[in-house]
Amino acid sequence: MNSSMKIFIIEDDHTLAGEISSALTRWGYETAAVKEFDNILEEFIQCRPQLVLMDINLPFYDGFYWCFKIRQVSKAPVLYISSRGGDGDKIMAMAQGGDDYVEKPFHLGLLKAKIQAMLRRTYEYKVKEQVFLGGDLHFDRDQQTLYQGEKEISLTRSERLVFTKLAEERPDVVSREDLMMILWETDEYVSDGTLTTLVSRLRSRLRAQCGQEIIGTRKGHGYFLL
Hints:
Layout: E1 6-10, H1 14-26, E2 30-33, H2 40-47, E3 51-54, H3 63-71, E4 78-82, H4 87-95, E5 100-103, H5 108-127, E6 130-132, E7 137-140, E8 145-148, E9 151-153, H6 157-169, E10 174-175, H7 176-184, H8 192-210, E11 215-218, E12 222-225
Parallel strand pairs: 1-2, 1-3, 3-4, 4-5
Antiparallel strand pairs: 6-7, 7-8, 8-9, 10-12, 11-12
C-alpha cells in the first residue's frame, strides 16, 4: 500500500487532531485537518484525500451530516472516531455512508490497523495501476496518463514513455541509458543531450503547473520520481 496517501482529519479537539496528525505523519501518510467547520465539504473537495477521520460531535453540523454530504461527491472511506459508543450511533454512522467506527479513547495502534485495513480494501487493486505523487497528483500506469485531480496533464509521446518508466521503478533511479533505450525502441533517435533537454523541459513544465518538484536527478546515474 502506497503510504503517501492523504488523510483528512475532521476533529474539533485541536489537541487530539494534532496528536493524530503527528502519528499519521510518522506512519508515512500526508495529513490535512479541517479549518472551517461550517465549510467542511468544500475543504474536503479541495483536499481530495484518500480517507477521512470523522468525529461526530462537531460545531454547526454533526459528523453524520458531513459524512452524508461527502458520500454524495466521493467514495473515499470514512472512519468515525467518537466518544459516542452506543449501537444507535454506530448504526447511524454506517447508514450515512461511514465505513468503520473507533470509540474514544482509542489506542493509536488500533487506529493505525483500522486505517491500513480500510486503505487496503479500498485501494489495493488500484495502487498497482496508480502512482500517487503527493497532493492531488497521480499517474495512471495502465493508461500512461498523468493527472492533477481529475484533470489530465498533457505529455508528449517521448515524455509519456519516460514518465511511465520512472513511475514503474519509483522510488529507484532509472539510468539515462535505460531511458534512451526505451526511446530508441520506438525508432526515435535520442542523443544524450536530447534526453537532458527532454527531462529538463518536462521537469520545468510540471513544476510550473503543479507547484512541486516531481522528477529528481542522481548526478551521474539518472532520474527518479520524488
